[in-house]
Amino acid sequence: MTGATAAANGVDTITGFVVGAGGDILNFGAFFTEDNAFSAITANPGGSTNITNKVYVVRDITGNEDVMTAAGLTTAVAGGEYANIDMTASTKAVVLAYTFAAATTVNVYYLTSDASAVITATLVGTITTDATAVNLTDANFV
């Protein structure tokens, strides 16, 4: 996942990704300049949370939008299960999504916001990890 845009990147597949400190590393530097702020959330934040230039890991909330699809994630941040996730207008972020606590499959999305700060998610990859997705850490991203 090294493309400067989702179109340039395509959809990659990575298997056996080693999570945690000392594990594998994804570098999203061609897409955006990360501000070294990594967060993992399992519920809608309590208030407005700006994810501009950040890598976020989100878990699908049962019975709501399916964040394992680009359309579902776009809807989730536009007023759905992750309605409090925001971005500054005309910026970028990366979201990794998984389905449940024991999941080892993670979908990677490039998020872009337009001039009105409307967020669109585009799938750029699927990762199969060596351990559960909840074990992803800041050490896995630069």
List the topology elements.
Blueprint: H1 6-9, E1 12-17, E2 38-41, E3 49-50, E4 55-59, H2 70-77, E5 85-86, E6 92-98, E7 105-113, E8 119-129
Parallel strand pairs: 1-8, 2-4, 3-5, 4-6
Antiparallel strand pairs: 6-7, 7-8
Rg from Cα: 14 Å
Morphology call: globular
Question: What portion of the residues fall into strands of 2 or more residues?
Answer: 25-35%
Span from first to last CA? 12 Å
List SSEs in N-to-C order: HEEEEHEEEE
Q: How many strands, what sense, and barrel or not for the largest sheet? A: 6 strands, mixed
Q: What order do the strands of the largest sheet run in, or round the barrel if closed?
A: 1-8-7-6-4-2
Number of helices: 2
Question: What is the typical, i.e. mean, pLDDT?
Answer: 92
* Extended strand count: 8
What does this structure look like?
With 142 residues, this protein is mostly beta strands. The chain has one domain. Helices cover 8% and strands 32% of the residues. It has two helices and eight strands; from the N terminus they run αββββαββββ. The protein has helices at residues 6-9, 70-77, and strands at 12-17, 38-41, 49-50, 55-59, 85-86, 92-98, 105-113, 119-129. The strands form two sheets. A six-stranded mixed β-sheet has the order 1-8-7-6-4-2. Strands 3-5 form a two-stranded parallel sheet. The termini are close together. The relative contact order is 0.28. The mean pLDDT is 92.
Features:
single chain; 142 residues; 6-stranded mixed sheet
Short overview:
The chain is mostly beta strands. The chain contains 2 helices and 8 strands.
